[in-house]
Amino acid sequence: MIRIQHIFLSLILCAFAANASAQYTSDSPSGTLSPYSQFGLGLLQQPTTGFNAGMDGLGIAMRGHNEINSTNPASYSAIDSLSFIFDAGVSGQMTNFEQGNKKINRYSAGLDYVSAIFRAAKGVGISFGVQPYSQIGYDYSESGYVGDQKTLKYINSYHSRQSGIQNYYVGIGWRPFKFVSIGANVGYMHGEMDRTVTNSFSDSNIDTYVKNYQTTINSYKADFGLQVMVPVNKKDVITLGATYGLGHDLKADQELYYMHTTSSTSKTDTTKYVAKNAFSIPTTIGAGVSFAHGSKWRIGADYTLQKWADLSYPVFQENSNGKGFVMSNNYYMDRQRMTVGGEYCTNEVSRNFIDRIRYRVGASYTTPYYKIGNVDGPKELSVSAGFVLPIVNGYNNRSMLNVSAQWVKTDAPGLIKENSFRIKIGFTFNERWFMKWKVE
What we know:
By secondary structure, the chain is mainly beta. Helix content is 5%, strand content 60%. It contains one helix and 23 strands. The chain has one helix at residues 2-22, and strands at 43-44, 83-99, 102-121, 124-145, 153-177, 180-201, 208-231, 236-245, 248-249, 254-261, 268-275, 280-281, 284-293, 297-306, 313-319, 322-328, 335-345, 358-366, 371-372, 375-376, 379-391, 399-411, 417-432. A hairpin with a 7-residue loop joins strand 21 (379-391) and strand 22 (399-411). The longest helix is centred in the N-terminal third of the chain and has 21 residues, at 2-22. The two termini are 25 Å apart. Residues 4-12 and 20-30 have low confidence and may be disordered.
């Protein structure tokens, strides 16, 4: 009964976390503030938890008895037989935006994820939780003069309420053979994309145009994983990992409400345009390798390829033939991500507090998945470092506090440059289950 109550409570917390992550407003300091989140499905998020945030998301070939690694569900089979682990994380960041000689700093914060895992049977681990798939949130404007006389000024404003897509997942990892593990995550994707573009002029006698794009996502997500362990000796193990994410149509329409306000009468006419089945997610392939020396240290590398170039994107066009959506095959491009990292711990079972601290570091390079006009979107370079402090009290010495810092540089020639500094804090609660108490 106690175990059922813990699972039920974890599910409630997962639902609360997803709702809290989705309920952003334009006045809230939560979520992203990047103008790049207006493109595609928004800023894609790496599925990190407390254990790999300090390694910049490394995880395809990582597995451990006391961690949740949703990057590869095959790792779930490694969970300790006496553990129920609940993991939740929050983050805060400062971002410096730079364009030409202009610089500005913005701040944001929010709840990142909630996940849980337990062993269901010998060699079988089950995990569930909620993680962000993408984030959307921006508010900025651009202006200039029409013609060479510099008497008429145009103002284009771009705004989105804080939103994005959440992934509610349930996963299972099974080890059918001693050195082979397979797994799968099945998720429910839900979220909204709400974007507004306003075209106005300094002369109040000129009409104003507003385009409001709305999309609601309700679909599924399926990911599969494989891990093969190759023992080198009694302490050293090489692990090979592979992942496959199913690409498919999200069955989501994009609606555009085109509002034209006539300056002379202040009357607004609204026309609705619809792009059917406008969005998809790509097929994703990942591979990784890690080398572990007992529980003292481990290093690894990941490579992930997302086949965005195979997909089309709805583009609204206005020309002599009228207005309407067309599906562009030249909007997306394949996205690649390379990650390296590792961790070190002097002795995870030592009675000395300092010896049980884990130190982690990682770095990643990510290519864009969309184009801005005819220019490739921004590339991303990030590095991270962190440590894990054991939480020790009278009845539990297996829980952990994960603290990490990450620097992210987002850059493309001629476009806005972003430098973000993030602090992530994760709480990993590890409770003993299935123990038989002996009374003497």
